[in-house]
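stage 2 :: seqdesign
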């Protein structure tokens, strides 16, 4: 099964849609390809209808809702990647995922939150190629009050 087929199956299973690729909100590129690597800018959690998910983890939203927000940010990454590459089938593997969690000062479950995006990548690219290096950490705030922001690096075929 190709990554495109696995993505379609996962979206159907979760009853989700791939969002439209996000337009830059500042002076940056959503995806930049250099020397066989695709670097994504930070992506925020956006519903397919364009609604932004907001809230601080451990206060306004719980871990489960934050995991879903991470999943949505991951879907945004896939949408931007597909728009840049033409197909997710050009992705060889996920190299690195970085997740930032807007949590309360005592919130310590950042890795559990970012698992929402990590599991999506493993489901789409497979257990070998969809699991890369990862960092997950807490921050004092994120743009527009979102609970997570995620960026990634992928190895791609020419």
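stage 2 :: out
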């Amino acid at each position: 099964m190709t990554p495109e087929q696995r993505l379609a199956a996962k979206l159907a299973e979760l009853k989700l849609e791939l969002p439209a690729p996000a337009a830059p909100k500042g002076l940056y590129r959503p995806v930049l390809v250099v020397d066989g690597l695709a670097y994504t800018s930070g992506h925020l959690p956006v519903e397919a209808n364009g609604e932004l998910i907001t809230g601080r983890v451990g206060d306004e939203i719980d871990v489960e809702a934050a995991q879903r927000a991470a999943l949505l940010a991951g879907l945004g990454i896939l949408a931007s990647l597909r728009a840049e590459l033409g197909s997710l089938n050009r992705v060889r593997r996920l190299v690195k995922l970085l997740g930032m969690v807007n949590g309360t000062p005592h919130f310590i479950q950042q890795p559990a939150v970012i698992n929402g995006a990590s599991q999506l990548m493993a489901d789409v690219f497979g257990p070998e190629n969809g699991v890369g290096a990862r960092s997950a950490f807490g921050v004092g705030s994120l743009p527009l009050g979102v609970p997570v922001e995620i960026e990634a690096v992928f190895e791609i075929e020419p």
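stage 3 :: structure notes
- The longest strand covers residues 91-102.
- Residues 63-85 form the longest helix (23 residues).
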